[in-house]
Amino acid sequence: MWPLVLTLVVATTGAYGAEVCPGLKTMYLPPQCINDRDKCPQNSTLEPASKVCNMCDGCTAYIQKDGECEPTSGISCKPGYECDEQELKCVAKSCSCQYKADNSYYKSWTPRCDGFDYAPVQCKGEKPTGRCFCFDKKGNRIFGEQLWANAENMTCACSRQVQELQDQGRKDVTLHCNEQGNYEELQCDDGLCWCAEEKTGKPISQILPENMMIMLPCYDKLNVGSAYLRQCESLLIAQKKIEIEMAAHNSRNPNFPYVNCELDGSYGAVQQDGNQMYCAWKDKSRIEGYAAELRDMANMNCRCARDKKMYGNLIQHICLGNGNYNHEQYTNNGTRYCVDADGFLDDNACPDSSVSC
């Protein structure tokens, strides 16, 4: 049975002279939508804001995997699939998130997908012991993680927004994300500050100039102090602003020292000391002896070193000298197994794997 969509819309004419849809220029009552995704019929999906002037969720029918299709028929393949013009059937786009999910590309986890793209939150392992990470749309891990058992409110919305702003060319983004990629309550960016809802980042207060942030209800002097930026990002943002100013005058950027910060303002996992890169904790202190030469910086992520620092004996895998997970691991009886960059089982992660994606 199709879900009930109860709508109260007053479409006035005459004095207002316009229809409610699509411009919504007339006076109307907000629609009262009642939806139940479990009641969508087979071969259909509950799509957000797809019905009643894009104000109510509703079921949308799709052609399923390997179903016959016509590119010009107006009926789409299900999200994550496209109509192959040669075979005229719905197929997953090669190497897309949906392709990898349907073909069990990863051995220890199944990616969550938004169409062809990766969903923001990806969880690996088993719920009691696994972890969830923030991902960009292309499947790259970004800032934010949480134990799966504690990740109920994890959205990664802040990490995603910062990533997208940076991809658009913003070098001086100062939004603060918490450890699971959600928004911190106090936010400042581009000279303005506001209180934000954690999961969505939606402003829940006035928006004030940064020099007036102490007037916001979410300002906490003990946690924030007199300056919004933390120690690491203060230097980083100062560098970025100089780069922006010099670029505006067609000047060459100076050779700044390497600065690597996380989106919560702490120091990043990889730090520089002369010609050496080393694995660091959030306060920039060294993590044991994990290090690499400057020329190897691009391949260094220090995830294994940081995980051992954070989780202790729960991490039994062997780290490489540069702090990354060794993709090849061995049990006590010499049996080889493979782990991915986050330390989770994945047969495709070993160097001799023949996978194409």
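(the above was protein one; protein two follows)
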Amino acid sequence: MRNLMKKSFQLKAAFLFAFALLVSAVTFAQNKPASPRDSVSGTAAGSTITINYGSPSVKGRKIWGGLEAYGKVWRAGANEATTFTTTKDIKVEGKPLAAGTYGFFLIPAENGTWTVIFNKVAKQWGAFKYDESKDALRVNVKTKAAPMHERLVYTVDAKSFCMFWDKIVVPVSVSK
């Protein structure tokens, strides 16, 4: 009788453990971040460039001039500020940028000429404590129309890096 009660207790405990595991797995699967972290690396101008960013989705929202205001510093992604790392000194739009890791920001503009910012403070939450006096480099670039990109993504190629989101691409040239 005692063995039967012991086995019954073990069976119930195993069932409860399996049930708790299942509930935990389902709960965890549903808690995916709305803007997951992503990164891209590539070689441009002989340097390894790595961009680490939060990747938000459009989700039917008006992005430019709506969610992301024109004329305001934007973290160029979601949540933590985007970081930009170059392993060698490079030129961005013809201007020098020393090797290192930077906070990467953009200032969207309705006229299509956006400001690209490399800030010496790499780790920041959003752009809430952004300090212009800590900028290492600012350049202006012309955006282009692009096919719809639901999720924000960056690319790196031999001569540039680009940000794609919504119906805009922000191309930034890189040279030695």
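Reviewer note on protein two: The helical segments are 2-30.
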